[in-house]
Design goal:
Elements lengths: L5 E4 L2 E5 L6 H18 L3 E5 L8 H16 L3 E5 L3 H9 L8 E3 L2 H19 L2
Parallel strand pairs: 2-3, 3-4, 4-5
Antiparallel strand pairs: 1-2
Helix pairs in contact: 1-2
C-alpha cells in the first residue's frame, strides 16, 4: 500500500494527495497525520486534493474525520485544490464536510491558517 507523504513547513503540515485513494490508504493517512500533528505540535494541516479526480462517500467522510481529529489535537485543517466535479459529487452525496474549511489553492490555504491564528491570538488577548 502506498502512503501519502506528509510535509512540514514551519508549524504547518501539508498533505499533497497524488495517488488514487483507496480505503486503506485513507485510514493510514488518518493515523499517520494524527501522529505527526502530535509529534510536531503543528497548528495547521493543509490537505491538497488538486490531483484527486473522484471522491466517494467514504473518502469524503474520512476528510471530515481527519479534520475533526486534527481539531481535537489543536490543529486547524484546510482542504485546498478541490475540483468543481469533486465539489459537485460531495454535495450530491450529501456530504457537506462540516468543520472542514476550504481554499482554492495552497497559497490561499496558508493565508487562511494565518488569518485564523491571528484572530485566535487577538481573541485570547481579551
Amino acid at each position: 500500500m502506498e502512503r501519502v507523504p506528509i510535509l512540514k513547513l514551519g508549524d504547518i503540515l501539508i498533505v499533497s494527495i497524488q495517488i488514487d485513494l483507496q480505503d486503506m490508504s485513507v485510514l493510514a493517512l488518518q493515523e499517520d497525520l494524527s501522529e505527526r500533528v502530535v509529534a510536531t505540535g503543528a497548528r495547521g494541516v493543509i490537505i491538497d486534493i488538486t490531483a484527486v479526480e473522484i471522491v466517494d462517500s467514504f473518502i469524503g467522510r474520512m476528510l471530515a474525520t481527519i479534520a475533526a481529529i486534527s481539531r481535537m489535537l489543536d490543529a486547524e485543517t484546510i482542504v485546498v485544490g478541490m475540483r468543481p466535479a469533486v465539489a459537485i459529487t460531495l454535495v450530491e452525496l450529501g456530504l457537506s464536510l462540516g468543520g472542514v474549511r476550504t481554499a482554492l489553492n495552497l497559497e490561499k490555504g496558508v493565508a487562511l491558517l494565518n488569518q485564523i491564528e491571528n484572530s485566535q491570538t487577538s481573541t485570547a488577548a481579551w
